[in-house]
Design goal:
430 residues, alpha+beta, six-stranded mixed β-sheet, 10% strand
């Protein structure tokens, strides 16, 4: 903005300038209780009770003494920052993209200092502009009307006595018009100054920014969790349904019995997927996680393997007898890891044998999924590639580790999750 643009009539008399004038008047109104209190107490301290209400010097001293009281009260009031922020945003013309202001209460003494300083500037400038708005218009009207009033009037008014002379009646109207511009320009300058100070004094502190970053990270973690749940549960079901439907289409006329079995498996897989989808979407409802069905754990691994085998994928399982003894948090994440491992085998290798091994000791649960690599892998799926990332995220959340890769024509996924002291469980082939 150029200097000339600052003094355009629209900038001084426009809607924004008028709103800032209202903002300053509110500041003057907020100062009034402190001013009245000081106006009562200060004469008692100075002993000048008789001239307290008529002496201009005493009034200016009262005004100056009221400001520290205003600053002290703002420092003791944590909600001063959101109140000042709301007024500044509504009346100072501060757009959110131009100025980032803190909307929460100040939690520490360091955070209260800057809002207290802004409040002091607000009431000080507001007191000055309010006084001018009350005193200047009558004086300006008197100067404009001076030529038609009593010629001896200037000598009877103390504030006109220094300017009394033969030229006063002729210049008084011009002086009155110029005097009217004084509160306008003062209000514009004070409002612009407060608008510039607001982002500095009412902006978020480093602690506020840290809390906001932590909240954004928490929301992002929730979104990632929901994305993983949808990817693993619905993605596995769709992959199984796709494979079953493709196999049924190929033998539709030759083997109706197999087609009926495939359709039944598709129905069961879809029903399970809908239940798991409701469980995930329950996390998004206002009722919260309590409204959602419980997430599947390793004790439901049998049903998952049945659906996978129904898709034409033979799965050999080696697992402990007591899968329900594994801690629920670890068991839920391990179930999703197994589900995603089987989904990868379905998508990228097709109906090939899969070896699934789940082992556990006192401290660690290990999940291993192995399958031969397809001789001719299909084309890459657009938008895919998030499954292994989700597995790694699940492992990191539990302070575990994951590893995957191809070796000697076999794809191997291995995930280790800490248990934190569970009973040793023996392995049983199934």
């Amino acid at each position: 903005m150029t200097p000339g643009a600052l003094f355009r009539p629209h900038a001084v008399l426009g809607l924004r300038a008028r709103l800032r004038w209202v903002h300053l008047l509110l500041g003057g109104a907020l100062l009034m209780p402190y001013f009245l209190l000081t106006n009562v107490l200060l004469p008692l301290v100075t002993g000048d009770v008789g001239s307290a209400l008529v002496s201009p010097a005493t009034q200016f001293l009262t005004f100056a003494t009221a400001l520290p009281l205003a600053a002290l009260s703002a420092l003791l009031f944590p909600l001063m920052r959101p109140l000042q922020t709301a007024m500044a945003q509504a009346l100072c013309g501060l757009e959110s993209e131009d100025a980032e202001l803190a909307t929460g209460p100040a939690r520490t003494w360091a955070e209260r200092t800057r809002p207290a300083l802004y409040f002091t500037l607000h009431v000080a400038a507001g007191g000055i502009v309010s006084g001018m708005s009350l005193a200047v218009p009558p004086a300006a009207v008197g100067l404009v009307a001076l030529p038609v009033l009593d010629p001896d009037l200037p000598g009877s008014l103390p504030w006109l006595r220094p300017f009394d002379g033969p030229w006063l009646p002729a210049l008084a109207p011009l002086a009155g018009v110029a005097l009217l511009a004084l509160p306008v320009v003062t209000s514009w300058a004070a409002g612009a100054g407060l608008a510039r100070c607001a982002p500095v004094l009412l902006g978020p502190s480093p602690a506020d920014r840290l809390r906001a970053a932590e909240e954004r990270a928490r929301r992002l973690a929730v979104r990632n969790r929901l994305a993983r749940e949808l990817h693993d549960s619905v993605g596995h079901a769709l992959s199984a349904v796709l494979l079953q439907a493709g196999a049924a289409r190929k033998v539709l006329d030759a083997d109706p019995g197999f087609v009926r079995e495939a359709l039944a498996a598709i129905e069961e897989t879809t029903r399970t997927a809908v239940g798991e989808l409701d469980s995930v979407l329950g996390l998004l409802r206002e009722a919260g996680p309590a409204s959602a069905a419980p997430a599947p754990t390793l004790d439901r691994l049998g049903a998952l393997l049945e659906r996978t085998r129904a898709a034409g994928v033979p799965v050999a399982l080696t697992a402990p007898d007591r899968l329900d003894a594994i801690p629920p948090v670890v068991s839920r994440e391990a179930y999703r890891i197994v589900q995603e491992g089987l989904t990868n085998a379905l998508r990228h290798a097709g109906p090939v044998p899969v070896a699934l091994r789940v082992t556990a000791d006192d401290t660690t649960l290990e999940v291993t999924v192995e399958n031969p690599v397809a001789a001719r892998p299909g084309p890459p799926r657009e938008g895919g590639g998030r499954g292994l990332t989700g597995i790694a995220e699940r492992a990191r959340l539990l302070r575990g580790s994951s590893d995957c890769g191809e070796r000697d024509g076999v794809w191997r996924l291995s995930v280790r999750l800490p248990l934190g002291g569970t009973a040793r469980l023996g392995d049983t082939a199934r």
